[in-house]
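Help needed: design a sequence for this.
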């Protein structure tokens, strides 16, 4: 039975058997999240959490993507028109926090591209299932932004400083890396999704369904052991400068991997790198709600700055040119410049947006 929670034409909801089914239906846009989709999904989760007949929630995407992120072009246009989309992000962050504390099993089938906002509506749930089609990334630093949607809550806890590496480079990984690092809880062939979904719908027994998969061999890391060791040794440093110095030392010793990572970091917004490095460091000691409040503070400053708009312009609007970051060099960034991104927000309205601190239930 289809259920109307809003977001028509962009996200579909169905109540079938013991499951609440969610399908993102913007395949031409790689299921990029709009504000309407975010609000509709939150309404569905609230309703199904209170419904004793719903044993679990299953989230999927149409086409070749689960969800490639938030609609950053819409955010770009809104900001350029003088109305930065604070409410879009505050609602998105509340949704991420809600998924993290959701009282029922929340199963995301990550069959395809998963980036940014797509991670936000999946990695905080109880079951994250990858396939041979999964392509995962937190690519925000590439557009002068930062890995938000709870990136500060899960990236710091990946083993071997793998999360810091993903955050600072924006590099893409496949199913083996997702499973090995803990981003995913299970890996299956894509052909198995229908069978598993049907079992969940018919029985509502999530524990038994996934227990039957326990003997299914998982894929190995695609990132080799030597590269993972280099990442662990370089991204463990206490400052971004020390991290870059460690990579430089390995590059000078002949490591092509270190050279490649350095080339990526050199192309990124210096401000984004510094903010992201500190975000990951601080997030390690914070609970999810506090991470979301911190990210909302950063978000406000990013929307008031330069590099996000420059990054989106180059990557998605004009395409092909080289971004002109401001500041352009790490040496031009003072510690106080980065402190400002993490400072408390001024008093806003009671809902925590557009300018005040993010409010969470």
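Sure. Designed sequence:
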């Amino acid at each position: 039975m289809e259920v109307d929670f809003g977001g028509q034409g962009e996200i579909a909801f169905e109540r079938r058997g013991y499951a609440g089914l969610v399908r993102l239906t913007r395949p031409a846009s790689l299921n990029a999240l709009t504000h309407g989709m975010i609000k509709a999904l939150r309404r569905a989760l609230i309703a199904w959490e209170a419904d004793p007949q719903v044993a679990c929630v299953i989230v999927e995407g149409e086409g070749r993507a689960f969800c490639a992120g938030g609609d950053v072009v819409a955010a770009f246009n809104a900001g350029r028109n003088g109305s930065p989309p604070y409410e879009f992000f505050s609602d998105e962050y509340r949704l991420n926090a809600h998924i993290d504390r959701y009282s029922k099993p929340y199963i995301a089938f990550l069959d395809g591209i998963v980036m940014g906002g797509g991670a936000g509506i999946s990695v905080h749930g109880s079951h994250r299932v990858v396939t041979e089609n999964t392509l995962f990334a937190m690519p925000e630093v590439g557009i002068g932004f930062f890995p938000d949607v709870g990136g500060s809550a899960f990236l710091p806890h990946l083993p071997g400083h793998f999360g810091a590496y993903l955050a600072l480079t924006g590099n893409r990984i496949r199913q083996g890396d997702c499973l090995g690092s803990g981003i995913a809880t299970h890996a299956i062939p894509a052909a198995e999704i229908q069978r598993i979904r049907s079992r969940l719908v018919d029985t509502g027994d999530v524990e038994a369904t996934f227990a039957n998969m326990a003997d299914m061999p998982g894929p190995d890391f695609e990132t080799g052991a030597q590269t993972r060791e280099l990442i662990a040794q370089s991204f463990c440093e206490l400052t971004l400068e020390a991290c870059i110095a460690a990579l430089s030392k390995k590059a000078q010793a002949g490591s092509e991997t270190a050279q490649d990572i350095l080339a990526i970091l050199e192309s990124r917004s210096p401000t984004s790198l510094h903010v992201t490095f500190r975000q990951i460091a601080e997030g390690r000691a914070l609970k999810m709600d506090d991470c979301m409040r911190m990210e909302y503070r950063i978000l406000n400053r990013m929307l008031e700055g330069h590099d996000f708009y420059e990054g989106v312009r180059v990557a998605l609007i004009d395409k092909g040119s080289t971004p002109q970051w401001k500041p352009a060099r790490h040496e031009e960034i003072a510690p106080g410049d980065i402190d400002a991104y993490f400072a408390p927000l001024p008093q806003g309205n009671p809902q925590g947006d557009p300018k005040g601190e993010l409010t969470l239930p």
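The mean pLDDT is 95.
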